[in-house]
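Dear support,

I submitted the protein below through the web form. The confirmation email said the job was done, but the results page showed an empty box. After a refresh the structure appeared. I'm attaching both so you can tell me whether what I see now is the final result or a partial one.
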Amino acid sequence: MKSTASLFRALLAISMLAGCSSYRPTPAAFHEVLEQPYRLGAGDRVRVTVFEQDGLTNSYSVDQSGYISFPLVGAIPARGHTAQQMEKEIADKLRQGYLRDPDVSVEIDRYRPIFVMGEVGAAGQYSYAPGLTVQKAIAIAGGFTPRANQESVDITRDINGKVITGRVVTSDPLLPGDTVYVRERLF
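What the results page shows now:
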């Protein structure tokens, strides 16, 4: 009976300590977005090529409101769209009185930057490149400081307009616009 009461008190203490922890598992949507086609956002730059139309072929930046300003047709929504959706949107607009059968190609010219903060050598804004992982981003930011927790980091990511923070290991991939926060270790 005495050992049962001790066991109960120990389990109660452990559950209370677990309740004080700020750790929450990473939501499933956090990793699911990695398997989906890339969606444009403010700060991205796209290269639009219109076959045999040199005056329309150029690089265009996605502005803060999520649009690109395209000659002849004006503002075209880009935020949340894939490159293939942008191709269709631009071709449809050009087809409305400007070109008979436009052949449009859209490719990402420059991704929006990532941000690295916390216990790193040089916190700041850095260019994103496809294949970038947390570990590579930390290396670009000057590596870990001596006080850094090197096992996991917090990433803040915009998923379908909702900002989500999750704790991941350093081998996880990053997406454009992610913010990496390296925490301080306890001991």
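Response: this is the final, complete result; the empty box was a page-load delay. The chain has four helices and ten strands.
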